[in-house]
Amino acid sequence: MPEVTTRPVVDQSVFKLSMRHLAGAVSVITVGEGEERTGFTATSVSSLSADRPSVIVSLNRKSSSWPVVERYRRFCVNVLTADQQHVAQSFAGFDGRRGIERYQDAQWHSLSTGTSALKDALTVLDCELETVLNHHSHAILIGRVCAIETREDVLPLLYWRGGYRRLSGEAGIRA
Fold first, then answer.
1. Third-level CATH fold of 24-165
2. Is residue 71 a contact partner of residue 79, using CB atoms and an 8 Å limit?
3. Per-domain residue ranges for the chain?
4. What is the radius of gyration, based on Cα positions, of the chain?
5. Within 13 Å and on the Cβ side, how many CA atoms surround 55?
6. Phi, psi for 119 (deg, rounded to 5)
7. Using CA atoms, how far apart are residues 77 and 150, in angstroms rounded to an integer?
8. Cβ atoms within 10 Å of 111's Cβ, excluding its own
9. Which of 59, 66, 76, 144 has most Cβ atoms within 10 angstroms of its Cβ?
10. Model-level pTM?
11. Distance between CA atoms of 100 and 33, rounded to whole angstroms?
């Protein structure tokens, strides 16, 4: 029988600091309809499969958006452009706005699932919630992509080391 060993526990603050080194595209995830519209800012968005287009989004279950995601079972990933930092700030709650108030100061349109899409976003992914995996404090949302809107003429908004960044637009290192 293999010997059971106890591994040291990783310090949460060290883990959080190390994750700040991951540069990520900034997205606003919109959920709900009408007066129940809300949403959140996320950098934890990733493609899952192209065979049946799907994405993964991580959401803290203490978020005010969580019960709305559970109720409506659909969401929209709005990948932000470098000029949409104010939208990221609102949906992150930094300006004190909650719920439908977060939709002020930006233009939106409704998608076929009923979710809201940000006008002029870099990419919009209209998703139906297929699966939820609960892991400690977070829910991992797996969404089937139902519709896509995308642009090629703008640069993404990035988040790195605790701040918003923009690409220079110049080509970098090539493989």
1. Pnp Oxidase; Chain A (2.30.110)
2. no
3. 24-165
4. 17
5. 25
6. -65, 135
7. 11
8. 19
9. 76
10. 0.91
11. 9
d(CA 152, CA 167): 14
**What does residue 28 show for φ and ψ, rounded to 5 degrees?**
-110, 125
Which tokens is 63 given?
């978020």
In DSSP terms, which residues pair with 45 in a beta bridge?
57
pLDDT in tens, the chain (175 residues): 677 777 888 999 999 999 999 999 999 999 999 999 999 999 999 999 999 999 999 999 999 999 999 999 999 999 999 999 999 999 999 889 999 999 999 999 999 899 999 999 999 999 999 999 999 999 999 999 999 999 999 999 999 999 999 988 666 655 5
* Cα–Cα nearest to 71, from 119, 127, 27, 32: 32
CA distance 156 to 43: 12
